[in-house]
Write a structure and sequence with these properties.
Layout lengths: L3 H4 L7 H9 L2 H16 L5 H15 L4 H11 L7 H8 L3 H10 L5 H10 L2 H8 L6 H10 L2 H8 L8 H11 L3 H8 L6 H22 L4 H22 L2 H13 L5 H9 L3 H12 L3 H8 L4 H11 L6 H17 L5 H14 L6 H14 L2 H17 L1
Length: 391
């Protein structure tokens, strides 16, 4: 067969191509596909000459033999400029031809990407999502409208940076899917409100599972699940930065998720930075003001802060005791771990509040026995038992 470059001219004779297309054997059509691809890749070929072979190339994209179509696609995969009709004809081929081509071709601009995302199936959408040159427009289209698999592909694309709005959109549309929830939870920059909602959703599923299978009594199941949920939420708050806490605590309050027991848990573990942020937002005062009151700059003021927070009076005493321990910690210049803080909290409850009724002291020890570090819990439970017997 005559080489294409031998014929390349403004009056390129393409009749031989039609003869091969109509009557050529498989080897001849394979040769034609490879030569056409090489011809289109030749930088010395003019735009007019390329246009002249487009009809032949388009016919090859519909060749009945897959080998011919594959040879053409592989030959054109590296071209930075390619006729759009040829491009989309290859993309519409069988997956084993189309997807490698779609993944590799540099001829795909952002308009092409958007077109594939609008009319292509999930496999093609996911291939677009995995491209390192994914355009901002295509990324936005995937996040807003694509099904699960293309959205998951974004997480594996090293060139894609997801921001808070992206996470919110993905969570809002697809957060119920376990695979999406898992991917979201694996992101270190995931907004804390989403992390908390995912934790709550997981605890709800566990509660439902316990109820359906009758593993434990209904009341016990509810208590177990609530404990796990609050522990997860508190862990998120403890690990949050100051700016994250400033955004997340109001979110929890608005959703009714900042329970008194979460605040008491934080106090029993010595996480007073969480307590001060919670009290400030609940009471509607500045964080610095809440911090000063908790540090003992105005005892009556601290009582007022607790009253304004709306927390039940039953937990005021344990919060006051935790603030005393935190002040001692600051004055001594030491940093206590959860166990050390809990031990001092028990000591404070037993020695500093001589006028506190035994019933109230037992109630505060019960908080410590439920929410403090594990070893401290045991100590608090024994002491509570002793007080109950003494009473």
């Amino acid at each position: 067969m005559t080489h294409l470059n031998d014929e390349a001219s403004p009056g390129l004779d393409t009749s031989i191509f039609n003869e091969v297309l109509d009557n050529g054997t498989l080897p001849a059509r394979l040769a034609l596909a490879r030569q056409l691809a090489a011809f289109l890749a030749d930088p010395d070929v003019t735009a007019t000459e390329r246009d002249q072979v487009v009809p032949t190339a388009l016919k090859l994209t519909a060749d009945p033999d897959e080998a011919v179509r594959r040879a053409l696609a592989e030959g054109l995969a590296g071209l930075a400029q390619l006729n759009a009709d040829i491009l989309f004809a290859i993309i519409a081929d069988e997956d084993d031809i189309a997807l490698p081509f779609l993944s590799a071709t540099p001829a795909l601009n952002h308009w092409h990407m958007l077109a594939v995302l609008r009319v292509g199936d999930e496999a093609r959408q996911a291939t677009i999502a995995a491209r390192l040159d994914l355009s901002p427009e295509a990324k936005a289209q995937i996040i807003r409208k694509a099904p699960l698999s293309p959205c998951l592909a974004l997480f594996d694309n090293a060139s894609v940076i997801l921001d808070d709005a992206d996470y919110q959109a993905l969570f809002g549309r697809l957060g119920q899917a376990p695979a999406m929830a898992e991917r979201l939870l694996g992101r270190t920059d995931l907004p804390l409100d989403i992390r908390i909602l995912l934790a709550k959703r997981a605890s709800n599923r566990m509660h439902q599972l316990m109820a359906e299978r009758g593993w434990v009594a209904a009341n016990d199941a509810a208590e177990i699940v609530a404990d796990a949920e609050e522990t997860a939420i508190l862990r998120i708050l403890v690990e949050a930065s100051d700016s994250e806490l400033a955004r997340t605590v109001p979110f929890l309050i608005g959703k009714g998720l900042l329970t008194p027991s979460i605040i008491v848990r934080a106090a029993c573990l010595g996480e007073l930075h969480v307590v001060e942020r919670a009290l400030a937002d609940l009471a509607g005062v500045a964080l610095a003001r809440a911090r000063d009151l908790m540090a003992g700059k105005g005892f009556a003021g601290f009582k007022g802060l607790l009253a304004k927070s709306g927390l039940p009076s039953s937990c005021h005493g344990i919060l006051q005791a935790a603030c005393h321990v935190a002040r001692d910690e600051a004055e001594e210049g030491v940093i206590l771990d959860a166990e050390g803080f809990g031990r001092r909290l028990v000591e404070a409850l037993m020695t500093r509040y001589e006028t506190m009724p035994l019933r109230e002291r037992a109630q505060h020890l019960d908080f410590v026995g439920r929410f403090a570090e594990d070893r401290v819990r045991l100590i608090a439970r024994r002491l509570k038992a002793d007080i109950v017997r003494a009473a």
